[in-house]
Amino acid sequence: MSASIINAYTVILIFAIGYLAKRFRFVEIDTARKLSYIVMYVTLPCAILSGSAGSIDLELNLFLILPLAFLISFGFPFLGYLIFHKEPNKCVYAMLNLGGFNIGNFVLPFMQSVLTTKSFIALCLFDVINAFFCFGGVYCMALWFNRKGFKTKDTINIKKILIELSKSITSYCCIISITLSAFSISIDETILHPLKVIGGANTFLCMFIVGVALNFEISLSKVSAILQMLFLRYGFATVCAVLLWFTLPFDSSVKLVLVVIVFAPITSFAPITAIRSLPQFAEDSANLNMISVMTSVVIITLINTLSSCFM
Fold first, then answer.
1. Which among 242, 230, 241 is positioned nearest to 294, based on CA atoms?
2. How far is CA 227 from CA 50, 150, 224, 234, 281, in A?
3. How far apart are CA 198 and CA 46, in angstroms?
4. Degrees (nearest 5) of the Cα angle 239, 294, 240?
5. Which residue of 14, 152, 209, 218 is most buried, as measured by CB atoms within 10 A?
């Protein structure tokens, strides 16, 4: 059985464990929220830091990923603006839910067993920019582009954006990991081993939290709006994936992880920012986020299964 199929059924199994744990009241949704802090501030940073120990020479052309990641991360929410700019509230909702990729809590644990060292560095480089957008960038962008029609108490300026972005521990860990590789610095085994042990829990906790958060009670009236967002998100992702695969000067392992990233689920912070700025759309955002996760599981499994034909 291929590694991609094993990854897929493992992810689905952990989803099921989390969902059943909630249904049988072993855990509550509040428990999942508290566990998410453990992921964001403990297991995810450890998984990132333990993934690279300076074992490769960082190729200069990999830094092309930084501006590329910026263009892609900017393009997704900007698509929402182009389509819905005449309806400020819906436009903000669309931008929040089209922007950002769930890399740390989805792509990394899903792909961790098949990542090469070089493709892991590529993932980190992309995630440095992605975190810029997930932790405040898309939110500030959505409010700025709709500032004339959308009323908010938030003042959007450079200081505000820097404050939002400074909260991203994930970004700091990605930068540290990239720096270690750039200077061929190896982490001492006495530090690396506990990082690997703690980071090893990241996959289970990430998927377990998603399973606990799953809610299959979606009204039919919401289905049309959800399908519209999914079509825009994954339609644009398909265009980006084709361009990435056929135009980039990287080896196939790096291009594969970039293609997987653009098909990643919507960032898990989208519902949080929706609650913050558009509480009337909070339930829609949560439902969309859940279906996005399931859609990405199917698509990424297919990509991994078919990738052997092109690599």
1. 230
2. 38, 24, 5, 10, 15
3. 6
4. 10
5. 209
pTM higher than 0.90 for the full model?
no
Whether 311 maps to a domain, the answer reads no
Read off the CATH number of the domain in which 270 is found: 1.20.1530
Tokens representing 147? 């500032």
How much is the average pLDDT of 57-72? 86
Q: Is residue 189 part of a domain?
A: yes
Domain extent at residue 19 = 3-296
**pLDDT, averaged across the chain:** 80
Label residue 306 by pLDDT band (50, 70, 90).
Answer: confident
pLDDT at 158: 65
Is 121 a member of any domain?
yes
Mean pLDDT for the stretch of residues 259-285? 75
Residue 308 domain-assigned (yes or no): no
At residue 144, the pLDDT reads 81
